[in-house]
Each structure stands twice: as C-alpha cells, then as structure tokens.
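#lab-general

N.A. 3:47 PM
ok so I finally got the sequence cleaned up, no stray characters, all 553 residues accounted for. can someone with queue access submit it? mine expired

B.Y. 3:52 PM
send it over

N.A. 3:53 PM
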Amino acid sequence: MPSTDKKQWKRDTLDPSVKKFPERREKFQTDSGLNIDPIYSPEDLQAQGLDYDNDLGYPGEYPYTRGVQPNTYRGRVWTMRQYSGYGSAAETNERFRYLLDQGQTGLSIAFDLPTQIGYDSDHLLAKGEVGKVGVPICSLVDMETLFDGIPMDKVSTSMTINATASLLLCFYIVAARKQGVSEDQISGTVQNDILKEYIARGTYAYPPRPSMRLVIDVFKYCAENVPKWNTISISGYHMREAGATAVQELAFTFANAIAYVEQALAAGLKIDDFGPRLSFFFVAQNNLFEEVAKFRAARRMWARTMKERFDAKDPPSMMLRFHTQTAGVSLTAQQPDNNLIRCTIQALSAILGGSQSLHVNSRDEALALPSEDSVQLSLRTQQILAFESGVSDVVDPLGGSYYIESLTNELEAKALDYIKRIDDMGGSVAAIEQGFQVREIGDSAYTHRQEVESGDRTIVGVNRFTTKEPPIEGLMRVNEEAARAQIERLEKVRKERDGGKVKAALERLEQVAQTDENTVPAILECVENHCTLGEISQVFRGVFGEQDGTLSF
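B.Y. 4:20 PM
back already:
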C-alpha cells in the first residue's frame, strides 16, 4: 500500500482523472443508505470506539457477535426448514414427507389466511381463500392428518401463526399426544408475534392488549410444560418485506421483543425462566455484506439488552437464536430463473451470519405456489452450500474484516438510536398507537420504489437487462376441489363429535377468558373435545372484541 493512513491512500488512489464507468453508481451505499467507503482499515474501527485486537472476542462468548456457539456449523449445520402448506392437510402431509425424504431436517407450516385469523373453512369470510396460501387447519382431525406418518418426537416444527398461535400450538400438542408423544418431547417454534401484525402484516384478530395476554399465556404454559418449545419467534422479516431497511428491521424487532419481555415480567415470570426460549426471525436480503453485518449486530444487541436492561444471568437468555428466510419481496415474475441466484446470495448471507435455521424461497413464487421441482431445487441450494461450498467449515468466516466490523458497528448504533426514540414514546406498543413504525417503513418503501422507477436502483430483468419471454409453464395450481373437500371433512367432525362436551368446553373457555387465568389449558380442553378453530376464536372475539383495520388500543 503506497501510504500510511486511509486518508492518504484515498488521495493517492481516487484520482479525479480516473474514468467514470456509467454502469456503476456515483454514490455507493448499502440498502439502508449507509455510505460505503472504497476501503476499510483499523482506523475506521478505532473511530467507532472498537479495539480491533481486544473487542472482537470469540464465538460462544458474550456478547456473541461472532456466534452463540463456539463451533457453529462444524458441530451441526443449520436446520433446513422449507416453508410449506397448501390445499389440504393430506396434500401438505405429502409435501412434508417428500421434503423429509429429500433431506430436509425440520418442518415449517404455512397456514391459509382463514386459519391465521381464526375462521373455519366454511365461514363466509373464508370463501375463495381456503388452502390458497397455506394449509387449512379447522380441527384436531386436520392436525392429525397433517402429521400422519411423521413422528412428532423426532421432527422439529415451526408454525408461522400469530393471532391464533395458542390455538394451533394446542392442536399440535393434542395431536402429539394421540401419537403417544408427550409435551416434554415435542420441539419447535410458534411465531406468536402479534405486535408486528399491527405494524406490517395485518393477520390480527383481536385488539392488541388481549392479544398480548394470549402471547404471555403461551410463555407461561410452555415454561412449565413444554420445555423444548420456542414460545415466540419475534419477527423482523415481515417488516422488511413491507419496505423497512436493515436498520429498521433490527430496531423494530428488538423494540417489540423488549415489549414482550416487559409484559412477561409484569405477569410474574422470571427473565431466566422464559428468556432461553425466545427466538427470532429475520430476512436475508440481496446486499450480502450488510445482511451478514446485520445478523452479527443482532446477536450483540440482544445479548446486551438481556444482560444490561433485564439483568438476565443465564447465558442462554442472552443468546440470540434465529431462523432466516430469503426475501420473498425480492422475487420477480420477470425472468424467474434469476430468483435462483438471488436466493443463493441471500442464503449465503444467512449462513455467513450464523443463522440456526434457514428457508430458501423458490424460483416460481412470484407467480404461484412453488412446484415440487422448485422446492427440491431450493432445498438442494441449501445442501450445496452446506456440503460443497466450504462456508460451514469455519466459524464466523468474515469476522475481523474491517468492512464487516465497521458495518456491524454502524448498523447497531443506528438501530439503537431508533430504539431510544421508541423508548421515549413509551415503548413499542405506544409507538404503534402513534403509527410511528408504519410511517417509517412507508417512507423507506416509497424511497425504494422511487429508486427503482428512476433507475437509480437496478433490478435485473425488471428495469434493466429486460427481455421478452414466453409465459413460464408448469406452475402449480391449488385444486379447487380441495376447499369443498375440506368443508365436507369439517361438517363430518361436527356431526360425529359429542355436542354436550363441545358446549361445556367452550363455556369453560369463555369463563377463563374473562379472568386472569391462563387460557391454554382451557383451549386444550376444547381441542380434545373437537371444538373447531373458528369456534374457539369466536369465544375470544366475544370476550375481547375484534380488531378492525384501525389501531385504536
């Protein structure tokens, strides 16, 4: 290097006479708008207050910037958990078993929209939505069918469900019991993150405050009865999909996490009783290095939050464990094969960032539900990265990179600034009441859209390098007969069950919902007696009220 410091290097190297290449941006920035210098050095880290030699530490050591386990993927590669669900419980069971046969190591259930917001498949508002974007689960019979032939003590299951999270967890518990599997043997995660629904996703059913109560009821029940279950997956994914930057994804996710912890503590739980079972869900976007830095910053932020803000003593309470999904919003209908490359880069960022679990989207998802061939190719993407690329051979392979460490520090600092603003508003719930997160995400989404439309941001195949192409063939379509068959099965359940026991169980649930008693045991009783998801949800609607599109708390 021709000089002794960064400033001199830049003066010597960045000669104004150097030819400008029109295909590159004049201003280099990350997707969050952080400026990117042409080179990074120890001086950048010193300016951020980091002692490069002494502050990085090692994987498995607080504050876990470099990973929560000392050996990470050298001990075991991440869980390959492809997100699946469509048509009917039987069809989804077939897809699950296919993926397990292909080497998938964990299940992830996509539920259809009626199930997500608490309606049975024959409800008027469910018309046209049954089985379209996930599997319909109306009764215990559906959950049993979903796991027919799949040993529930051997497979870890993630359920993307929020408003009706406690209900689906109870369906899962009772279905496991019917297999002879006890509560202390099942493992998995229920998303159960209702706050982000009011910010970005919209599949809520009840007002926020009683919804928060249902979240904490799951915390309490699982702390005592389901020790291997992650009681929440606090999600930044959906906020990022709605247009948030990486900084906002970190900030809003952890602001929500703080709200859940505070609510649990107020309910009498001890931080180290439930802290180790909190988990997170992040997106992996296209900007490889920013995403790697984001994951590293997230671990450090959470460790410090739990130790310094909540006085956690148990190291597992401070260890951020997270699932990652590649970015659905980045998939394009134009030139869909390009999505294979996008998803590979995104998956690589999650792996380099130390994700414990990963779903890779499929090439055709901008056009339809993924076909069997597409989901196999997505799983093969993970397997090639795991077993052929070498990226799993060393822990935190990018740790110590001046650029990565600088980005990690900057992302953390800017996210903490956001969290302070939210704290000053009274916390995440108060900020949601004021529409703060929604406005901030909306502004970021608008800026992104302007950049795409102006050409300042390149989307290959969309606003540059476009081609005329024939319609893609072989797209998967959900059989319309599936909805009719689902309604017939539901009618059969209602006809064959004991109506007196159903009535008694629902009345018991209503009584419990009107008190401070934990609702989970009463929900379990309803499930055991074949009450439907819609019937249970309707009890809660009657007691709690129903949340419409406005955020009146």
